Amino acid sequence: MINYLIRRLLYALPLLMAVNVLTFVLFFVVNSPDDMARMQLGQKRVTEQAIANWKHQHGYDLPLLFNSDQQGAKQLTTTIFYQKSINLFLFDFGISDSGRNIGADIQQRMWPSLALALPSLIVGLLVNISLALFMVLFRNSYLELGGSVLLVMLMSISSLFYIIGGQFLIGKLLKWVPISGYDSGWSAIKFLILPVMISVVAGIGSGVRWYRSLFLEEVEKDYVRTARAKGLSETQVLFKHVLQNAMIPILTGVVVVLPLLFMGSLIMESFFSIPGLGSYTIDAINRQDFAIVRSMVFLGSVLYIAGLLLTDISYTLVDPRVRLS
Prior knowledge:
The chain is mostly helical. It has 14 helices and no strands. Helix 8 packs across helix 9 (189-219).
């Protein structure tokens, strides 16, 4: 098992390096430091001296990959690639173009994002899996047919409709919870109830359909017929055998959802004024703060690769055959 995990970790390192290099190319080759300076200073009446001053203030006046003016190791270390990209591997995100400490901002804003993303993920999984098992239990009935039609209708509605409709109905008309805002400690719960509920409802359509198809495939296998022949009830078969044997695809689905949760929080945090990483990224894009955007792209890649590694660990716990591969 240890050798298996080491191999997976070694596979992840080149992928992370490739993402870092691609990010560097997009931010400093395709979009040059001169272009960044012009977008920050404004397109009209921008002098070359003003561009040079802006680049010098933000450390973008160095050569990209090789500094021929220096000697020894400084030829590689006094470059944009080393100072802006290599330090990301040490999680040294540096200073933003607006002068803020990016690492400190991330540490402060990660907790509101986790407070929103984790309940949405956990409650969403429980609701989707439970409803999918319920539909499989009543398969080939009018209840399943009506549920399938309802799921397709839920999938066809934009997430923005759920956000705006939820804010208007629950926050403004019924006034059960605040429409937007955030607070520290346990006081934040009242601000998270509505966005978590909307995240869960918006994902029911696609989530339940996916788990339903997964469980329907399992109930047709031979081990299910054997379990029924032994006298087990349909409920016992579903919860004791089908659900257990479907854990590997479920874990895979969770990993697929993780980056989508992060991207979805961009919209959710912006609409509900939650000071998390999503709204932090949106604000940086609006301000054209390339240092923050670059750091968030790298951080998102790290989280995604970490999720893949955790999934591999979960595979070894759920399926013993993986430990021997």
